Amino acid sequence: MSVDVPPASTRSRWLSALRELGLVAIMFLVYKIGRIAATGHVNEAFDNAHKVWDFERWLHLPGELSVQHRLMSWHWLVEVANSYYAYVHFPATVICLIWLYLRRPAHYRWTRNVLALLTGAALLVHFAYPLAPPRMLGDTGMLDLGRLYGPAVYGAPETDQLSNQYAAMPSLHVAWAVVVAVVLITATSARWRGLWLLHPVITLMVVVATGNHYWLDAIAAVALLAIAYVLMRPYYPSGRVEVVVAGGVPSAELLPAVQASSEAGAAPHQRLPIEEPVLRR
Question: The whole model's pTM is what?
Answer without folding.
Answer: 0.77
